[in-house]
Write a structure and sequence with these properties.
With 247 residues, the chain is α+β, with helices and mostly antiparallel strands. Helices cover 42% and strands 11% of the residues. The protein starts with a helix and ends in a 20-residue tail after the last helix.
Amino acid sequence: MNRLVLRTILLAIAVLVPLSAMAQISVSVGIPLPPPIVFQAPPPVIVLPDTFDVYAVPGVSVDLYFHNGWWWRFWDGYWYRSHYYDRGWAYFNHVPGFYFDVDPGWRGYYTNHDWHGHPWHYDSIPYGQLQQNWKGWHDNGYWQKQRTWGVQGYQPRPQREQQAVRLQRQQQYQQRPEVQRHQQAQAPGPQRQQPQQQRQIDRQGQQHGQRQPQVEQQRGQPRGEQRQGGERERPEGRSERGGEERK
């Protein structure tokens, strides 16, 4: 009896392991990985004003952020995240929620030490200090409440203004060519007409003494042929709130 149970367990393992490996491969098909960023040493970061603890790496030309224990990177219309700043990137199929709080002109403000007309005395935060303190800073609101992000005489925007700015940045983000190219690649195929819409077209055609050959042709097709080309499989992977990501 014990041998039979053991054989059953071993057979289940032999079947499930290849299936899980195949699933891991399938979710990564068609999603390129970003090119590596070479660092001579762990990069220092700055905390960005008007954000909830979003840190940026000013020493590189790519968008590289740290937020809530993850490193985030935008590349060629895709978002990636990792627990490491220079490797281990995994595809993330949503725009991270913090991104629309990031002022797109922060690099110019960083160079000029000026944040919207206020002196910006930012701190260059070493990597080790960030790793040790980011959670405590987040829990007690250190940068917003105690330091105002190092911006002299600056007050955070009212909530209504923050929402308006986020909406504007979201619209600007959707207009970026690489984002539009990405969205078009994931857009679903054409959908079939609903039966109610077809009946409405038929009634209109009868009232005017006209036939609807296109609709009749669709009705005359076998059910299996109607489905061909009309439905596409949804892309796998969800946001961190949804539970899955592409790796």
